Amino acid sequence: MSDKIETKLNELKINSMYVGALPNISMEALLQFNIPGDRYAVSSIRLFLGKYHALPCLLTCMSGTDRKLLHVTTILEYLCNEFKHDLNTDLITGNYNSQTNQMDISARFCDLKNGIMLEFQDIYLNPGVLNPNQLKADKSDDGFSIAQTITIYYLPHQMPSVSELCKSFYKMTVLSPEPSITFTLHMVCRNQGGYYLSCITIKKPLITDLALYYGNDFVSVHEKIIKSLNTLENKGIVLLHGIPGSGKTHYIRYLIHEIQGKTLIYVPPDMAKEISSPDFLPFLMQYPDSILIIEDAENIIKDRNESSFPSQAVANLLNLSDGLLGDAMHQQIVATFNCDLTTIDPALLRKGRLIANYEFN
User: Fold this and answer.
1) Whole domain around residue 128: which residue ranges?
2) Which of 62, 210, 279, 298 is the most exposed place for a label (fewest CB within 10 A)?
């Protein structure tokens, strides 16, 4: 081993027994060490070998962990402040952007001069992120420069420092939006040919705590509803009522994502009266073991004794929820309404027919 190389190893605190230390191999031979198929113009391994005359250990930090995205600009500022790093000494790769007349950097290689090198890979601009850490955006449209991967190359004695470095990087992140969870609801429509179902997509609302949204007493009601609606070949009716804006529809959006293995048929307010039509029940018979969701149902569930012209809709709902037709079709009903519970037909509240009744306030 030459005195010059031995002095270099001692300065860098490299253990001569370290498997990556190759002091007896010439630089020409060292530079033959490379990663096959390396897609970068200059191999990061070669750069490390040329600088430190030893093969590096590797630690990788990746965006996407717990939706965290590594913000390049904040991390570079941290390196400048904590390690006195000079950004003008970095090796960068990028593409010229003719629209902005600037270089869009796609990769960056930094040497911290202490046996640690960092490679920022797959850098891109992302405007569609959440910013809970209140980081400064790179563009006026809230675009953030994100590195898909940061690979840290280091000498063995720097392992504790590198671990802390990676830990710090994950504090300098923005968040990718939580994926939208959607569900297909089948809405009742009608044309000259009769009734048909049209698919609509419903996003699941962000409800992390039902008790916080609707009160502690509602949790057991929700559990009862879910258990019944997720039971195959079941029947019965769920009544959800309260003043407009009390949260009924919001809960329905949440509820439909909790139901599995059943077709959910949505009857919009303007179609609710169709339930009294002679053609409606034969149409529903095509969808046994499904769930009928009726919104703003007050006009079709009023007490028949209080009306001069009793609605056939109530009779149909009773038959579906607990009559002979219900025994055959196993169809359940979820109805929301704004009127007082005392104004609806009492037969709907009969034990054995009623799954749950809850007033939102």
Assistant:
1) 3-175
2) 279
